[in-house]
Design a protein that fits this description.
alpha+beta, 28 strands, 2 helices, seven-stranded antiparallel β-sheet, five-stranded mixed β-sheet, about 425 residues, rod-shaped
Length: about 425
């Protein structure tokens, strides 16, 4: 057996234990780092070719593994922009140069421009919802933008869509002459029910819409909408201008449901075309009851607060009480998360063995849920790390003894001839 081989094997063992101590040191240092995933050093034997009757010592090889797929415990906070992933998946973030990375560190706060940035300075990426963006690019990170929760402040959104559903009394009497329906806009107008809705024009001014329902015959009704601003003092008919729209409603006598897909197409004054869906109207033997009344749009207002749902939808809460979905935060995943490449700042980049990235919405396709007002703690167990430290220390000492013994034997060999 070569004495030089013994010494080299001892050096290999000391280097391996040093590598293990390095990972232990990193784990202990980041025991309180949110989203940190522990590393560990595994050993494999290095066997050299041996001649018959003589053994040649080899050494030990080290392999660093990362427990990236292991979930850390969640701790809850008071900030809605603190995010954690419960289950599989990673947040997509980018550095100042726009390079995308994956991370589980979700301690995001808005910077001076309203962008959500975590403790390492990486910006959260998502998809804007206001611009009518398309679906998620499932096999890449293209099309994502930096989530900005401040850019929609003091913006007005005109109304374009709405829905109204109510029950009309099937026992109501149909109008008879000389009475006229609201669409005629005469002083002789009669109607069965009326409700008012608020819509918004291009500048965010509220526009009150009066919607009238009148029975015109068996299972037949008329829905007519007016601008409240055209009503005479004290209300009533006639309005100063013709109705904004009128539509006939026909109901199935077998179940009382409206037939077809009726809708009021309203040209909001100084605003956009508003489609008010009436396809959920009913006609049964009960009083007039409103079951749904919703119109999109909002008046100018600053953002007061932010809410983030389990599916990653970011809602802006305005000072006037409006609540609007502004962003969608997706999650990314790879086939082998433990083979991602750790980078500085508690982020990960794709590795040769990690597999291709796939993007999707939280709670779908095996991805976990996004938990707001929570942070994922590191998955470091201090007791295990301290135990590994003691083991490495003892093993390092033992390997140094092997090296020392080989050195002493080599000294003896050299001194055989004096």
């Amino acid at each position: 057996m070569s004495l030089y081989g013994v010494m080299r094997t001892g050096v290999s063992g000391m280097a391996a234990q040093s590598s293990k101590l390095a990972t232990v040191a990193d784990n202990i240092a980041n025991a309180n780092t949110n989203g940190y995933k522990r590393s560990k050093t595994e050993f494999s034997s290095l066997i050299l070719g041996n001649n018959s009757g003589q053994y040649t010592s080899g050494g030990v090889k080290t392999h660093v593994q990362h427990a990236i797929s292991q979930q850390g415990a969640l701790t809850f906070t008071t900030s809605a922009t603190d995010l954690a992933v419960q289950g599989n998946g990673f947040f997509v973030v980018s550095d100042n140069g726009g390079t995308p990375y994956l991370t589980r560190a979700g301690s995001f706060v808005p910077n001076g421009e309203g962008e959500l940035v975590n403790a390492a300075g990486f910006k959260l990426m998502g998809m804007p919802l206001d611009g009518g963006a398309g679906g998620v690019v499932v096999n890449g990170l293209q099309g994502l933008q930096v989530v900005n929760i401040g850019q929609t402040a003091l913006e007005a959104t005109p109304s374009t869509q709405g829905g109204f559903a109510a029950n009309l009394d099937s026992n109501a009497a149909a109008i008879v002459a000389p009475a006229t329906p609201p669409s005629a806009n005469l002083a002789t107008t009669e109607y069965e029910a009326m409700s008012s809705l608020v819509a918004y024009d291009n500048l965010g001014n509220p526009v009150v819409l009066d919607v009238y329902f009148t029975k015109t015959g068996p299972n037949a009704w008329e829905a007519t909408v007016f601008d409240r601003a055209d009503a005479p003092p004290g209300g009533g008919f006639p309005y100063a201008n013709p109705p904004l729209d009128s539509v006939a409603l026909a109901f199935d006598p077998a179940n009382g449901r409206v037939t077809g897909a009726p809708a009021l197409n309203v040209a909001v004054p100084n605003g956009q075309a508003l489609t008010l869906d009436l396809s959920d109207m009913t006609q049964v033997a009960a009083d007039y009851t409103v079951m749904q009344a919703a119109v999109n749009g909002n008046a100018p207002s600053a953002i007061r607060d932010v809410e983030i749902g389990e599916d990653g939808t970011v809602f802006a809460i305005f000072e006037n009480g409006e609540r609007r979905a502004t962003w969608q935060v997706p999650l990314a995943n790879v086939t082998s998360p433990d083979n991602l490449q750790p980078e500085a700042g508690n982020v990960y980049s794709l590795g040769l063995d990690s597999g291709e990235v796939q993007l999707g919405l939280a709670g779908q396709g095996g991805l976990g849920d996004i938990v707001s007002s929570a942070l994922e703690q590191s998955n470091v167990d201090l007791a295990s790390e301290l135990t590994s430290m003691i083991e490495s220390q003892r093993s390092y000492t033992a390997n140094s003894k092997v090296f020392q013994t080989g050195s002493e034997l080599l000294d003896v060999l050299v001194n055989l001839k004096r």
